[in-house]
Amino acid sequence: MDVMGDKATLFETGRFVQPSGEEPSRDVDEVGEATEDAEEVRLGMAARTGDAEAASVLGAMLLRRGDLDAAEPQLRAAASAGDRPAANNLGVLLHQRGYADEAADWWRIAAVAGSAAAAHALGRHHRERGDEPAAEYWLRQSAEQGHVLGAYALADLLEHRGDSRSAYWMRAAAERGHREAAYRLARSLDGGGAEPGTGREDEPGTGEASAEAEQWYRQAAARGHRRAALHLGAILEKRGELKEAGRWYLTSAKDGEARAACALGFLLRDAGDTESAAVWWLRAAQDGDGNAANALGALHAERGETQTAERWYRAALDAGDDNGAYNLGLLCAEQGRTAQAEQWYRRAAYAGHREAANALAILLLRGGDTSGAEPWFSKAAEAGSVDAAFNLGILYAGRDTEWDTESAVRWYERAAAAGHTEAALQVGIARLREGDEQTAERHLRCAAGGGSAEAAYRLATVLDARRPPEPAHELGESVHDKTECEEWYERAAGQGHRRAQVRVGMLAAARGDVVEAARWYRAAAEAGSRNGAFNLGLLLAREGSEPEAAVWWTRAADAGHGRAALRLALVYARRGELAEGQRWAARAVELGPVEVAERAARLRDALREELSA
Question: With helix as H, strand as E and coil as C, how does 367-416 read?
Fold first, then answer.
C-alpha cells in the first residue's frame, strides 16, 4: 500500500505553512529551523496540558519528520480524545510500522467522523485483503467527498471489475489533477493500443476522442508522467510536429523512459544527426530496449562494423525483441552464411515474426525446397505480410493446375488490396485474360498509379481498344487533344517501357511529329526493342536516310524481326549486292510472319535466279 499520509493528510489541521518552492538561503533556513523548534516546544507544552489539537499537530509534525516513536504517543492521546486528523495520522503511522489491522481500526474511526483521507486509506486496506465490497464502500465515501486519491482508487477498483462506472471516477480524478488518472483516461480515449516504441503501435485515433486523449496526455505529461510524455510525443510526431514531439520525448527520456529515448533517437536520425541518435539509442539499449538495440545494430551494419552490429542484434534478442533474430538472419544472409541465416530466420519465424517467415521461405525456395517454402509463405501471409502473399501467388502461378491458378489470383488480390503494386498488375492481367475488363481496369489503375510501367502500358492498351476512330480533320485544323490512353502510354514510356515508347512514337508519327516519333523510336531501339529499331529505320528511310535506316534494320533483324530482314534484302537488292540480299531474304523467310515469309521467298528465288544466270 502507498503511504497514506500524504501532505494533504498530514496538514489536515491547516496549521502548517506550505513551502513556497523557492530555495532558501542558509540564514533563512536556520531561522526556519529555529521557528519550527520553538513551535514544537510550544505544542509540546500545550499537549502536556491535555490540548488534543496541539497533540495532533505535534504528532503530525513528528510523523512528517520520520520520528515515529515520538509521534505515536502524541497521536494516540489526540485520537483517543476524538481528534479526527490524529486518528487518520495514527493509522498512517501504524501502517508504516506494519500494524495494518490496528491502522484500519483508527482509519475507520476517522472515516466515520468524515475524514476523506482515512476513508481512502481504509478502502485501500480492504482491497489489499480482497474484500472488494468493503473497499468500494469506503473508496466511494472518500471519492464523493472530493478526495482525488479516493476517486482514482475507486476508478481502478471498478475498472478491474469491468464496471462501466469506472470511467466517471477516472475522469473525476483526472479533472482534480491526478496524473495517473489523466494518463489512463487518455489511454482509454486513445483506444488503449500498443505502447509507442514497441513497433506495434496502432494508428492514431481521429476526431474528438483523439483530441481529448491528447489533452489528457498533455495534462499528465505536464505533471511529470513520463509515459504520458512518450505518448504525447508519438501523437505529435505522427502529426508532423517534430520539434514539440522531440521536446516531450526528451522530457520522458530524461525521466528514464527507455522507449522515449529510442523514439528520440529515430527523430534525430531522420533529422540527419546520427551521432546524437546513437547516444540516445545506446542509453535506451542499456536500459533494456530491444528496439534501440536493433537500431544500433543497423547503424553499425551500415558502417560495415558487422561484429558490433551482431552484438547489438543479440542484445535486442536478449531483451525479448524478435527483430533481433530477424536482423541476425539478414546479416548472415548478406555475408553468405546461409545455414546461420536460416537458423535465425527460423527462430524469429517460430516466434511469430512474419517477415522472418517470408525471408525463410525465400531462402528455402532459392535452395530448391519448394515444399518447405510454401508453409512459411502461408504463415507469413496469414499473419499479414504483403510480400509473402505476393510470393505465394508467384509460387502457385508457377504450377499448371486450375486450382493453383485460382489460388495464385486470390493471393495476388490479397496483396493488391494491401497496396502491392506488382500484385495489382498480376490481378489485372489475370482478369483481362478472363475477359473481366472492368475489374482488370480497376487493378491496372491501382498498379499504374503505384508506379508500374507495365500496368500503365496495359491500361493504355485497354483504353486504346475502346477509343473510337478519330474523325477526319478539316483543312487547317491542327489542334490535337491528348486522350487518357495517350497519357498512360507516355507515362509508361517515360519510365522506360519499350513497347510504350514504340506506341508513343507511332502516335507522334500519326500526328506528323517526325522529331518526336524518332526520339521515342530511338529510345526504344537503344533499350533493345526490335520494333523500335524497325520503326526508326522506316522513319529514317522516308526522310531519305536509307544508310542509317539499314543500320537500325540490321539491329532489328539480328533480334529476330522478319520485316526488318525483308527490308534489308530489298535494300541490298537495289544496290546490286545480290548475295547479301539473298541472305537477308532467306533470313526473313525463317523469321516470318507468313505474309513476310511469302514475299521474302519470292525475292530470294528471284535473286537466286539472277545470281545463277
Answer: CCCHHHHHHHHHHHHHCCCHHHHHHHHHHHHCCCCHHHHHHHHHHHHHHH
**CB atoms closer than 10 angstroms to residue 339:** 8
**Cα gap 296→277, rounded to integer Å:** 9
Q: How far is CA 470 from the centre of its chain?
A: 49
DSSP state of 474: P
The model carries a pTM of 0.70
Instruction: Please check whether residue 520 is in contact with residue 531, taking contact to mean a CB–CB distance below 8 angstroms.
Output: no
- The pLDDT tens digits for 141-192 are 999 999 999 999 999 999 999 999 999 999 999 999 999 999 999 999 987 6
- Closest-CA residue to 523 (of 488, 496, 485): 496
327, 447, 452 from 457: Cα distances, Å: 38, 11, 9
Rounded to 10 degrees, the C-alpha dihedral 130/134/137/139 comes to: -50
Q: How far is the CA of 479 from the CAs of 144, 191, 474, 482, 491, in angstroms?
A: 81, 58, 11, 10, 21
Query: Measured between alpha carbons, how far is 3 from 605 in angstroms, rounded to an integer?
Result: 111
- CB 56 within 8 Å of CB 78: yes
Q: Give the span between the Cα atoms of 446 and 464, in whole angstroms.
A: 18
DSSP codes, 58-93: HHHHHHHHT-HHHHHHHHHHHHHTT-HHHHHHHHHH
